[in-house]
Amino acid sequence: MAQCVQSVQELIPDSFVPCVAALCSDEAERLTRLNHLSFAELLKPFSRLTSEVHMRDPNNQLHIIKNLKIAVSNIVTQPPQPGAIGKLLNDVVSGCQPAEGLVANVITAGDYDLNISATTPWFESYRETFLQSMPASDHEFLNHYLACMLVASSGEAEPMEQFSKLSQEQHRIQHNSDYSYPKWFIPNTLKYYVLLHDVTSGDEQRAESIYEEMKQKYGTQGCYLLKINSRAPNRASDEQIPDPWSQYLQKNSIQNQESYEDGPCTLPSSKNSDSNLLSLDGLDNEVKDGLPNNFRVHPLQLDQCGDPLNTDGSDHAKSASSVHETKKASTGVTRGACLTLTDHDRIRQFIQEFTFRGLLPHIEKTIRQLNDQLISRKGLSRSLFSATKKWFSGSKVPEKSINELKSTSGLLYPPEAPELQIRKMADLCFLVQHYDLAYSCYHTAKKDFLNDQAMLYAAGALEMAAVSAFLQPGAPRPYPAHYMDTAIQTYRDICKNMVLAERCVLLSAEILKSQSKYSEAAALLIRLTSEDSDLRSALLLEQAAHCFINMKSPMVRKYAFHMILAGHRFSKAGQKKHALRCYCQAMQVYKGKGWSLAEDHINFTIGRQSYTLRQLDNAVSAFRHILINESKQSAAQQGAFLREYLYVYKNVNQLSPDGPLPQLPLPYINSSATRVFFGHDRRPADGEKQAATHISLDQEYDSESSQQWRELEEHAVAVANKGVIPSSFYPTQYCLNSYSDNSRFPLAVVEEPITVEVAFRNPLKVPLLLSDLSLLWKFQPKDASGKDIEKVRERVTGEPEMIGTEVISEFLINSEESKVARLKLFPHHIGELHILGVVYNLGTIQGSVTVDGIGALPGYHTGKHSLTMSVRGRQDLEIQGPRLNNTKEEKTSVKYGPDRRLDPIVTEEMPLLEVFFIHFPTGLLCGEIRKAYVEFVNVSKCPLTGLKVVSKRPEFFTFGGNTDALTPLSPSTSEHCSAYKTVVTGSPSTGTALVSSASSVDFGTGTGQQLEAIPVPLPDSVLLPGASVQLPMWLRGPDEEGVHEINFLFYYESVKKQPKRRHRVLRHTAVICTSRSLNVRATVCRSNSLEDEEGRGGNMLVFVDVENTNTSEAGVKEFHMVQVSSSSKYWQLHKSVNISENKDAKLASREKGKFCFKAVRCKQKEDAIQSSEKYTFADIIFGNEQIISSASPCADFFYRSLSSELKKPHDELSAHPEKHAAEDAVRLIEKCSEVDLNIVVLWKAYVVEDNKQLILEGQHHVVLHTVGKEAFSHSQKQEPPEMELLKFFRPENTTVSTRPSVEQLSNLIKTSLHYPESFHHPFHQKSLCLVPVTLLLSNCSKADVDVIVDLRHKTTSPEALETHGSFTWLGQTQYKLQLKSQETHSLQLKACFVHTGVYNLGTPRVFARLSDQVTVFETSQQNSMPALIIINNA
Fold this sequence. Notes:
Layout: H1 8-15, E1 19-24, H2 26-33, H3 39-43, E2 53-56, E3 62-65, E4 71-74, H4 82-95, E5 105-109, E6 112-116, H5 121-132, E7 145-153, H6 159-175, E8 190-198, H7 204-218, E9 223-228, H8 246-249, H9 313-330, H10 341-375, H11 388-392, H12 402-406, H13 418-431, H14 435-451, H15 455-471, H16 481-494, H17 498-514, H18 518-527, H19 534-549, H20 556-572, H21 576-590, H22 596-612, H23 616-628, H24 635-655, E10 668-669, E11 675-678, E12 689-691, H25 703-720, E13 735-736, E14 747-749, E15 754-761, E16 768-781, E17 793-794, E18 803-805, E19 808-813, E20 818-827, E21 831-845, E22 860-862, E23 865-876, H26 888-892, E24 905-907, E25 913-918, E26 923-925, E27 928-938, E28 944-951, E29 957-958, E30 982-984, E31 994-999, E32 1013-1015, E33 1022-1023, E34 1028-1036, E35 1042-1054, E36 1063-1075, E37 1078-1086, E38 1100-1108, E39 1116-1128, E40 1131-1136, E41 1145-1148, E42 1152-1161, H27 1168-1173, E43 1174-1181, E44 1185-1187, H28 1194-1207, H29 1220-1232, E45 1234-1249, E46 1252-1266, E47 1271-1272, H30 1302-1306, E48 1309-1314, E49 1318-1321, E50 1329-1339, ...
Helix pairs in contact: 4-5, 10-13, 13-14, 14-15, 15-16, 16-17, 17-18, 18-19, 19-20, 20-21, 21-22, 22-23, 23-24
């Protein structure tokens, strides 16, 4: 139980006190009423004695009584109705609420820290009122009147006669059978005569003389002169007299009564005229004064209708109005206004005198009489008290059978029965705190009652015996709790008297609590909860909960559970405030522990109770909690919660319709997932017209591609700013999200929409309907110079002239769905915009779930969904920036940077480009050339300029070179034409090349420009507002098969320079799927023939292998080799060597073709500077149509592939300064084997698609760098190297070898033997055959070379002889000579043979060294053709 102000040792004596009746004359009542008090009320604050009093017990032992209190009350002849008592108790509890500033106790138990009210004053008030308002009953005498004060005034005409009348009246009430109420202790009631004297208006001498007369008639012990009203009632008081009555009279009004001689009347009772004096409705806080009760009926008597809560009908209206008038009349009146402090002392003295001289001697005498009466019969039985049964048995009710007795509580004793005399004595002893004697009497009476099966009497004796045993000084015996248990069970089950059972429980629980037996106390309290009284059950459950929390090891969950039960019963009893308090205290335990259903129930109840008490904010908060926690309730229950919440919220809003919009809890908004997009939505594809993909909210964020776009933009900006990126450059961000850098204020453009994507989530199982959903914003307009020009505009009703706001009329989020809403703003003015949040009506769909709860308001129809009820509110978008982690301070603390994605700065107008692609393919063959068209449209009101396109894959597309006309055919007319520029040829010399030339500068691949930024050839370089331009664009399928994503970034600027934004970009990602077509391999080798048809300089043979690798999945039937072209600064194809009769070289699937061409050096131009960038193109045609390879698009793609080839890293020799000489030599030797010849293979493919035959065109490039080294049209896949054992030592020689490779050496000197293929010699005539042989030596380098020719055979092993045959060179075996740059020299040799046969003459070894070098290198002859000669016998 909760802590109490009184200990149980104080509580019980105060609850059972001697009762004294008061009977006043009208004049006496008038005197006390001057103080707005009745006589009984006047005495109440002074009814406790200030000193100890003594009396003698029957054994003449002195007995001390401490803190004795007496209860004086006006005589009421009607017993109180149970309904009235119930109403009074209800009012007492509701009138006692926890103090506002009360500091609650913090109890820590395990994981719980609970704020709990340590005291429960409402329970103490209830208990006190309950014990005081118990009606007197026949089976006990504790609240029977022991004495009666007869009060008359000294101002009456015949006071003594008045006393006689009063005495007769008292005798009539006590002894007349008409009056069964009140109850009197003994027939001979003490009468005490009190003369009231009004000091201010009365005659003091007359009063004294009357008092003398009284003393003579009634004795000095039986009368008293009480002087009161020492002050005039209307005189202003100089001194402030305390008001001791307020604390008593405001608690309850049981004793607040007056006695007039008028006949009985009824007390008006209604909801507002409560008999206690505190307002109950929680709204009306006026304090009600004690109302005069001029009647003899009990103050708790109800009105005649008998219904305690009847609030209907005209009677109620009349009574309520009359009480209200009385209340108004008496408001602000001070009680005891005519009394001084001296009067207070006189009243106190009067009570002392009455108790010392009148009451206690009377009690002492009565105890002795009862004792003597019982002891005089002592000899008849061994039992002191039970012996009296023999004497009084004649008047007892006839004996009944045992079963009848057990089943009845209706056994009654007559007043003079000896068992009742024992009980009377016991009660008297108990009232004067003589607990030892009381216990022995109760114990004896209990046995007698049980023997007689008088269960009501027995229960009463057991109850008081237990209390007496507990209160005995020195505690000679333990508290007999089983007595109480038996008494409670008897009262409740046999006697069906819950009031007495409740008294037992209240007393016993206090006693157990004082002994720290909280568990037993709780069990006792819980046992008495029942359906007949919600208020009692609520209070007892609450006290049981306090027992659980006050245990040595607190039982927190039991506490919470019983607080919930108590709250429920308080609610049923109409005690809304107490119910709310109980639920709130229990909530502390259930909150945040995962008991979501319990939490929901508590919050729901708190919400409802708060709403009933008009605590609307608390109600909204509680309902909000139900909705925002991840609810595990069923859909029906959630629907009920939601509707209840909306209903409450609507009421809150109606109270303050002009207040700020409330924050709504639903749906959830994931603020960090908010995305902001600047610009128009992308247009859908229109037939063959496909808009640039740009960027949209439908695209997922990809950090890798984001970085690529950033690099492309940096390239474009660098090109536009002459290679330097400005310090103010910041990458354009069209879409801001949680991954983007949001530390800067984003830039929006006037008249271009801003789209905010808000991520909603509905946590409930019922759908939510948001209507009139729009963004909430604040805008600061600025002028062109950046100054504020107006006050800040806020979006309350909408300012369309500044910022247009899109409103979504209905937005439905289904149960447990996550859904994004895209809301737009249209800025019409420059300035600073702040997007604050979203504003909407929250509602649910009618008929989505049928549940109980508050009925739906009449819905209004909004489109396709019918709302039941909705509330207008807002939710703010608050985005936390990234955590800072740069400085030491930031690393050691938790700091977050700004996130400004919702705070755009609206800038001046900018040009806006839209790009459309026409006939843009999605699938190509590798190397296929396709012509498409690009349309550029300026959709803004500003001209744009400086249009460039940047891509990581410039080899994929071209707009054509500068040499072409800029007025292409329209797409429709060029649909079936070739993408190439072609010329129909006559019959050129068979397989001979047609030569043309072109400069790389014309194709945008000059050395001064970045390759990635390609200017778009706009007419006049400007695109005016509303204008559009169509340009051709040639595409070439990438060489690798697969899916390719190719990014284009279109960069453009405004003609008018903007301070904040200098450029804009438009993105496009083309997805191309390429399939295999041809694989081209080529090698170049030196021709051994030294005849140069075109003059000096040596010839080359070019071998080209073409393989059809297409697997026919693209419907390709066959490929035709149309043309092979070469492009080089130094070499050109001259003619085809193996020209077949079939001019069209066809390759079906998986076929391979081999071509051989002769290449010659180009004719040198005089203008060396120009030739450095001039490429010679030579075309060898296999058909009758020449593709001009030096024109667009063939040359474009050639140059692009060349530039991408040049970007690839080549193995460079590391520079070692000390070895310069050797390296120069190597470099010279390397240059001999370099050719730099590029081959372009042009082809046509015949494709069958949808029963139509299409002709596709394409080209492949092979770059030949080195003689003898095979080159491919696309890079070959590298085979992974085999695993090697790990070596843990360092190689000794780490320097780079400066020896040239064997292949390079073989190209330094070209050797050629000239001899007859067969030679006839008559061996029978001449045994030696001499054959003349010419050895041609050609210097391929541009330096002087010293050559040594050694004719001796290298080996003399038998294998070598077999290979070469046995022949001998005659003459000089070694020649030394020097060859100038590119000089040719011939040596005349003779070979000597002795047999016929086939001989290989290629045995001379040639050594060469550069003239200025020491090192000699041997030129290897491995690659030389075998020089075979046949020697025949003639």
